Amino acid sequence: MKKVFLFASAIALTLSLNSCSKDSGGGSSASMKVDGTNKSFKTIAYSLGGSTYVHGYIGNIETPTETIDFDVDPGTGDKVSSFTYEIDGGDFYTPTTFTSNVTTNSASSAKGSFSGTLEPFGAGANKVITDGKFSCSVTTGE
Predict the structure, then answer these.
(1) What is the mean pLDDT of residues 120-138?
(2) HEC letters along 1-16
(3) CA atoms within 13 A on the CB side of 25
(4) In terms of pTM, does the model score above 0.85?
(5) What is the three-class DSSP state of 81?
(6) Torsion angle, CA of 18/115/89/27, rounded to 10 degrees?
(7) pLDDT exceeds cutoff 70 at 15
(8) Please, where are the H alpha helices in 16-120?
């Protein structure tokens, strides 16, 4: 959770006005189905220490209605890791049933797909993620 907070803080300070959706020509977006419902996120991607961190949000970046956060770490074989999803104050994390396929992880872009079942941090029902994909322009922090 500390990693997510640090990443979100860095993004808010350095990139809050630099995000864009795929429709605006910038090419940075993520989408997925949550329990069968389509979700589309605006994204900000940031490279630091060899890892790419992605923050996605629905709504306004300062007061989003839903968020996703994950990283693509070369140490994990370019797999999506530390995936979290937040909606209505409920946080969900990635258990071992999560799969991903990263097709691009470079200093300038990250692209791939993901799916799996997310478990809640507290009480509540799991969330099934299908058809997840991301395509992000990456800002380098080094």
Answers:
(1) 91
(2) CHHHHHHHHHHHHHHC
(3) 0
(4) no
(5) strand
(6) 10
(7) no
(8) none
List C-alpha distances in Å: 65 to 23, 34, 42, 136: 20, 14, 12, 21
pLDDT digits (tens, 9 = 90+) for 17-44: 333 333 333 568 999 999 999 999 999 9
The region, left, alpha or beta by phi > 0 then psi within -120 to 50, assigned to residue 17 is alpha
First to last CA, the chain: 22
Contacts (Cβ under 8 Å, ≥6 apart) of 115: 32, 98, 99, 100, 129, 130, 131, 132
Nearest to 70 by CA among 52, 96, 91: 52
Buried b (16+ CB within 10 A) or exposed e, 14-31: ebeeebbebeeeeebbbb
Q: Where are the alpha helices (DSSP H) in the chain?
A: 2-15
